[in-house]
Amino acid sequence: MNNFCSACGSAITPDARFCPGCGVTVVRVAATATRQLFRPLYDRRIGGVCAAMSRAWGWDIGLLRILTVLCGIFLFPLTEICYIACWIGIPEEIPAPPVL
């Protein structure tokens, strides 16, 4: 599988360190694993929606909860409808089986 140089568009082999067309250093981007969106069993206040988003995307949970409350006040029905839809739509975390 060939990649392409971002500077000149030449084909680059996966093991190349420099572009054969222009000589630019090839920068490899590591693939990041995506985290699943689950409402946790613990560390949740109402439905676990803010905790789920915080864990999945690495956001600060306190800031996310404050923004949710402020949006709930100023964008009255929209935020509450979205929160309830996420509460229904985001699956709950499956508990780990007990260790015997």
Strand content: under 5%
Q: Globular, elongated, flat, extended or rod-shaped: what is the shape?
A: elongated
Query: Quick one: how many beta strands?
Result: 2
Give the biggest sheet: 2 strands, antiparallel
Instruction: State the low-pLDDT regions, or none.
Output: none
Q: In which range does the helix fraction lie?
A: 25-40%
Mean pLDDT: 85
Tell me the strand order in the biggest sheet: 1-2
**How many helices does DSSP assign?**
3
Global structural class: mainly alpha
Question: SSE order in H/E notation?
Answer: EEHHH
Distance between the first and last residues' Cα: 47 Å
Rounded Rg: 22 Å
Summarize the structure.
The chain is mainly alpha-helical and about 100 residues long.
Itemize the secondary structure elements and their pairings.
Elements: E1 3-4, E2 11-12, H1 49-57, H2 61-74, H3 76-89
Antiparallel strand pairs: 1-2
Helix pairs in contact: 1-2, 2-3
Structure description:
With 100 residues, the protein is mainly α. The chain folds into two domains: 31 residues, no CATH class; 63 residues, no CATH class. Helix content is 37%, strand content 4%. The protein is built from three helices and two strands. It has a two-stranded antiparallel ribbon. A hairpin with a 6-residue loop joins strand 1 and strand 2. Helix 2 crosses helix 3. The longest helix has 14 residues. It is elongated and about 55 Å long. The termini are far apart. The relative contact order is 0.13. The mean pLDDT is 85.
